[in-house]
Amino acid sequence: MADWGARFDCPVLVHADDERWITRPGDAIELWHGETRDLGQGLTLIRCGGHFAGGTVLHWPDGGGGAGALLSGDIVQVIPDKAHVSFMYSYPNQIPLPEAAVQRIGDALQPYDFDVIYGAWWDRLVRRDAKEAVRRSVHRYGRALRGDLAP
User: Is 41 helix (H, G, I), strand (E, B) or coil?
Assistant: First the structure.
């Protein structure tokens, strides 16, 4: 992160809840607090939590052809069917998040309009109806953890 900030001469915004994960401080690293941070021009950082307490996504209202976009990294993970998303505590170890943490992510995103999700990997993109995909996935995730999904 310190190298990115220095190389591109820009701030690197890290939620204060993730300060302990900064392994090499740098002048460009800036901690922010709260649930959202307005970046101007409609861009908003949203603290969703998840596998890191300060897990953050970016809402871009003009993205997705003007219908709104979410740049989610792996906080809201676009899965191969690209019609759903998933949420994990540990991706390498395949440990799911608790239902309450997933519901919190869904609740944090509810106020924002977005039709597209740009996920963590090049081919992970929900091209339309992304907000509904998140809503549907939060519901499905909870049902799965409670054992309410049919085999």
Answer: coil
Quote the pLDDT of residue 90.
Answer: 92
| 19 Cα distance to chain centroid | 18
What is d(CA 100, CA 56) in angstroms, rounded to the nearest whole number?
17
Same structural domain for residues 19 and 77? no
pLDDT band at 91 (very low <50, low <70, confident <90, very high): confident
Are 45 and 19 found together in one domain?
no
11 lies in the same domain as 51? no
Neighbouring C-beta atoms of residue 55, cutoff 10 Å? 23
Q: Indicate the pTM of the whole model.
A: 0.94
Chain centroid to CA 72? 4
Whether residue 39 contacts residue 22, with contact meaning beta carbons closer than 8 Å, is answered with: no
- Six token digits for residue 127: 């091209």
